[in-house]
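Figure 6 in text form: structure in, sequence out.
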């Protein structure tokens, strides 16, 4: 039904949104903390490379 890259993208995006929501609700949305959301997309990029190779 869904291929691996699509599922990976959905899971990583969901994790990133939950992380950002948590930061904003706790009032800890600093530039350094927001940079942490980029880590989720680095994981996605690595997973994408591994699944497509």
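Output sequence:
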């Amino acid at each position: 039904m869904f291929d691996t890259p699509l599922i990976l993208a959905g899971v990583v995006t969901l994790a990133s949104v939950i992380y950002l929501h948590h930061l904003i609700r706790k009032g800890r949305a600093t530039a350094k903390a927001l940079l942490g959301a980029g880590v989720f997309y680095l994981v996605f990029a690595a997973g994408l490379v591994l699944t497509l190779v």
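Caption detail: The mean pLDDT is 93.
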